[in-house]
Amino acid sequence: MPELVSRLAGRLPLQFRVLHRQFLLRVIDLESLSIQADIPRFLGQFAGILIMFSVIQSVGFLMALAAAPRNPIILIWSTEQRLISTMMLVAGLTAVASWDNIFPDRRDAMILGPLPVRPRTILVAKAAACAAIVGLGILALNSFTGLLVPSALGGVAHLPRALAAYWLTMIAASVFSYGSLLTIQGFMALLPRRLFLRLSAFLQIAAFGILMSVYFLEPTLPTTAALKAANVQWVLASNPSYWFFALFNQLSGTLPPSFTWLAARAWMGLAAAALGATASLLLCYLRTMRKTVEEPDLVPAARGFHWHLLFGSRLQTAILLFGLRSLTRSRQHRLAFAFYLSVVLAIALSWLHANLSAAAPRPLGPDVLIASFMMMTLAVFGLRNVFALPISRTCNWVWRTTQLSPSEKYIAATRDSLFFLAALPVWIVSAALFLAFKPWSLVAAHLAILALFGWIFVELSLIGFYKIPFTCSYLPGKVNLQLLFWSFVLVLSIFALSTAQYELRSLNHPVQYLLIAGALSGVALGLWRYNSRHAKSAVLYFEELPPEIITTLGLTRDGVSIARL
Q1: Where are the domains of the chain?
Q2: What is the dihedral of CA 145, 149, 151, 155, to 10 degrees?
């Protein structure tokens, strides 16, 4: 089989093969998700995470199926809906992660433009590279569930048809999700270049938020009666995941005739997404490829009068606004921070969904306390990791040559940035979500503890961080993403569970609560004092250099090393 694939690939044009290989390695921004500058290794770890999710879903499905009643159709339908929604979410997030990478950029225009390479060859190679990434996600995420669910639905006799229906539906749902975002990006790229760059940041953030919100807030309708309810018809008509759920049952032969219109919407949506993506790509490569040569790394500021709030001194305001604008204007930094925000947003949306489905205000429980701890931890440490990524070499030299104040003031401004951009937004979101809980006195007590934890996390993030955000050069390849992801989730889950259980008991005991609050305040003040003392003698660094390694040849003379001579 590998020989047949190699033989077929060898018949493709040489230009296509070379470009496809290069675009496949560039489909994810190297600056934002780098593992030893090795994109194939990152793709392998990306597939490993999705395979692990598939294993977890399969084990949960088997356990629920063993405990299900004699008629497991409710469990199977709810599982189908969740798997289709997850597949559409992964395909959509892949489009968000590879934002604009399928369209021609400045490097393509400057390097490939003078060469005798046709634009259509570049287009087909980039499209094939992006399709390979989406295909990898489809195979990895359905590696185990793609066999279990069709087997449970059709049995041995109808297994071939159920398998074909399952995989065709997953491919169609992925193409629809990815193609819809691609269509929006493509037609937006036809706007004037500067306007497109300004709108692109907001469009990417909006797409990310909509995908996560739809996934976590959509209801589960596992029965025919629930699908026929009058109050959910607008949900069925407006949510594409139900369209492809109906398509799956139509292909497998289990769709009730009253829901044929849903499957028809899936076919029409798939055709519209495919045609829209194709048309937008053709227009971009034919009309806008030459305009990207002068594309700036960052969107230039608009002319005119500008007014903004002052956050402390002018230096603190400058660093805070620099960090905020870097996150909103730079695609690499938005993507890196979105990796952490995706988990934070998932927790918040799950929490909101539980609050909306509750008939009355709920008492505080360990689940909501754990959620708030995890949100605060991921936001603070995630932003701290993104701060280490440089925005551009120009900013490096600008900050280096304009350093007129002591280093401690720059480090204090970095502390303010972590507070205002990570800890404070999470605290405000948590306070808004806690309004659905009673009594409010316990809610206020927990919010005070959460604020202290945010302060502690900020101070922990500043230990040894003697640089301005987004200005120090970055050495890629120091992080194993898959190992870090699962290790961090495991350690964070254990920490949040133990902390929430202990705090929940102390909320009803004022003396114990005051002792905990006092201990946390002492830890926060101690860390603040430690960072402030070391900041006075710290030297800001703008170049991250690899450790020096001395290699000896092992030469000796009369048994004595030449190095000693």
Answers
A1: 13-295, 313-565
A2: 180
